[in-house]
Write a structure and sequence with these properties.
The complex is a heterodimer of chains A (333) and B (308). By secondary structure, chain A is mainly α. Chain A is built from 13 helices and no strands. In chain A, 80% of the residues lie in helices and 0% in strands. Chain A starts with a helix and ends with a helix. Chain B is 70% helix and 0% strand. With 308 residues, chain B is mainly alpha-helical. Chain B has one domain: MetI-like (MetI-like fold, Orthogonal Bundle). In chain B, helix 2 crosses helix 3 (93-129). Classes of the chains: A mainly alpha (333), B mainly alpha (308). The interface between A and B is large, with 74 and 59 residues.
Chain lengths: 333, 308
């Protein structure tokens, strides 16, 4: 019964996050004084050298409102929006690349983001936690303090500083990696994959460094607390080795809150990934959003943010659903 | 409450969850721990004091508005006249940096006050009142934590571009940034709610508001300092992030806008590395100072108040 209850609670939260997220994205632009349609029309007007007649503009406005689901009162617009987004994954066409539907643009960019994010987060989580458990288990030893200092120095540095420093150090001072990365498209030949990996190393390194510090600090604190538990003392009296105690007693228990924390911090990690993509011109959702923001392509922006919310919430749900497999106490409650 | 999500603690708390000095081991060890805790706090406070003094006093002596372009020759090297050289826009790099630190700090402090007020009210009430109110509030809090902030800020930045001012950005950060602190405060209240002295106060006839203000708030107030400093970090970071990708008000000097201009004017290709290195070093030092102060405070308070 315990697991069912847990899953139901978690799915409930998932639906709530999606609902609140979609509602915010819907109402946000409508509460602001600016109107994207006005902006778009004035853009067309200037492109036509001011030769559009008043009737043509009214015609254009009705067409655009129809096209972008802006007809009717706010409530019916809202229902229409939820219906289109949830049941049809339809975000309308892109302004800039007109007939191309937004969903296909995002679906091209999403695998890039997910690939980078998953690999970097996994590396940062595993490495950070391993270093953290060593630092925490041997917290009375002076050498372990050095590990913690690494975490303290790394953790507060923001993503954009890490990204720029990594470029400065590894592409400018020591030119190992390209200063302006290129990501060719085409069939996946080994050479192309190699080039993609080579060009993605710096963005990935940025994300790993950013996650690494937090994981060390957090895991260290948890491991220190776990080391004081009576069952660890019992294990020591039983004659188990240091290694067994650290890995099977301390790490196994201290890891659990870290899994939950990972699920909660996904939003922040995702923000960092978007920013890193923009700074490295990496062809993911972040770059797509940045280009859309500068060209005023609002459909692409809303599509990207909606899918971001869905992706982050789903990843959080998946992590939390894996959790009972790691923690037998939930399964047997 | 058997909600396991409650086990998640904000990073600063974890970082500071140092074992509090214990009474049992010998006095020498206890003294060494106290020294370590103080060292963090002292180091952090010194860094912050230098930044605060430097960025608020020095601008009074500024020879001119550092944001004014083409005041000097472009890309001058380091010299006695320009300690960090000039940048690709003909501005003095050092004076620009000083104003940037000041503006970022002002923004951070204002956002910090706003977020502390909102998150304290929400966290205290959710933790203490409980019931359906708490469940609904926590649902909203968890949603705000899960929803990635940057995409929302990118949309807002694109929509209000041109007619935004610097403090609109601060306001937006407040609206979307209160959730983490509210969550932490609520979990502290949860652990306090079951304590003897709270029951004592209630049985003595104290009302909910009186208990919140007079019994629980003193415990939470220590965390408020920590939360406030963390929020300054968060606010400066968020604004700078937006500025670096050109979606904040980039003509206001901030720690992010320097990097925006340096990247846009290809500081690396023109060989003007100080333009890029100076803000990086300043940001890292400032953030390290704020972080050390926040964890130092937290550790010092944790040992005194006896609540984690």
């Amino acid at each position: 019964m315990g697991v069912l209850q847990y899953v139901a609670k978690r799915v409930g939260l998932y639906l709530a996050v999606l609902f609140i997220g979609l509602t915010i994205t819907f109402f946000l632009p409508r509460l602001l004084p600016t109107n994207p349609i006005d902006a778009y029309i004035s853009q067309l007007q200037s492109r036509a050298n001011g030769q559009l007649t008043a009737e043509a503009i009214i015609q254009l406005r009705t067409n655009l409102e129809e096209l972008y689901g802006l007809k009717g009162n706010l409530f019916s617009q809202y229902l229409g929006y939820l219906n289109r987004v949830i049941f049809h994954l339809d975000f309308g066409p892109s302004f800039t690349y007109y007939p191309t539907p937004v969903s296909s643009m995002i679906l091209t960019a999403l695998p890039w983001t997910l690939g980078l994010l998953l690999i970097a987060t996994l590396i940062a989580w595993v490495l950070g936690n391993l270093v953290g458990v060593v630092a925490g288990y041997f917290h009375t030893k002076r050498a372990a303090t050095v590990l913690e200092v690494v975490g303290i120095l790394l953790y507060p540095i923001p993503y954009y500083i890490l990204a720029v420093s990594v470029i400065l150090l590894l592409a400018y001072v020591i030119p190992i990696f390209p200063l302006s990365p290129t990501f060719p498209v085409g069939p996946l030949t080994p050479a192309l994959v190699g080039s993609i990996v080579y060009n993605s190393t710096l963005p990935a390194l940025t994300l790993v460094l950013a996650g690494f510090g937090w994981n060390i600090l957090s895991m260290k604190a948890l491991a220190v607390a776990t080391t004081e538990e009576p069952y660890v003392t019992f294990a020591r009296l039983k004659g188990t080795s240091n290694w067994t105690r650290m890995v099977r007693y301390v790490f196994r228990n201290a890891m659990l809150p870290q899994v939950t924390a990972l699920a909660l911090s996904l939003g922040t990690v995702f923000n960092g990934a978007l920013l890193t993509e923009i700074l490295f011109s990496y062809p993911g959702v972040g770059l797509l959003m940045r280009t859309a923001a500068s060209s005023g392509d609002y459909d692409v922006l809303y599509g990207a943010i909606t899918l971001s919310i869905v992706a982050v919430a789903t990843a959080g749900l998946v992590i939390d659903l894996i959790y009972p497999l790691l923690d037998p106490r939930i399964r047997h409650r | 409450m058997s909600d396991i999500r409650d086990t998640a603690v904000s990073p600063a708390d974890l970082a500071a969850a140092e074992p509090a000095p214990k009474a049992t081991p010998g006095r020498r060890e206890r003294a060494s721990w106290l020294w370590l805790l103080n060292a963090r706090l002292v180091l952090g406070l010194i860094i912050i004091a230098i930044f605060l003094l430097g960025s608020f006093v020095l601008p009074l002596f500024a020879p001119h508005d550092p944001a004014q372009q083409a005041t000097y020759m472009k890309n001058l090297k380091i010299s006695p006249a320009h300690w960090l050289g000039t940048n690709g826009l003909g501005q003095d790099t050092l004076w620009y940096l000083i104003f940037a630190v000041r503006n970022s700090l002002i923004l951070g402090i204002f956002v910090g006050i706003g977020i502390s007020a909102i998150s304290t009210a929400i966290g205290l009430s959710a933790g203490f009142i409980g019931g359906a109110y708490e469940r609904i509030v926590m649902l909203i809090v968890d949603s705000f934590i899960t929803i990635p902030l940057l995409p929302i800020l990118i949309i807002l930045g694109a929509l209000i571009r041109g007619n935004n001012n610097f403090f609109t950005i601060g306001l937006i950060i407040v609206i979307f940034g209160w959730a983490w602190n509210a969550r932490t405060i609520r979990s502290m209240v949860l652990s306090l709610r079951e304590r003897e002295f709270i029951n004592m106060a209630r049985f003595s006839g104290a009302g909910t508001l009186a208990i919140l203000v007079r019994e629980i708030f003193p415990y939470v107030s220590a965390y408020l300092v920590v939360g406030f400093i963390n929020t300054i970090l968060f606010a400066i970071n968020t604004e700078a992030t937006l500025a670096v990708i050109g979606l904040s008000k980039v003509d206001v000097p901030t720690l992010g806008s320097i990097i925006f201009w340096a990247l846009n004017y290809n500081a690396l290709f023109t060989g003007n590395t100080t333009w890029l290195v100076a803000p990086i070093v300043a940001t890292i030092l400032l953030f390290l100072g704020l972080f050390l102060t926040s964890t130092g405070f937290n550790a010092a308070f944790a040992s005194r108040r006896g609540v984690a």
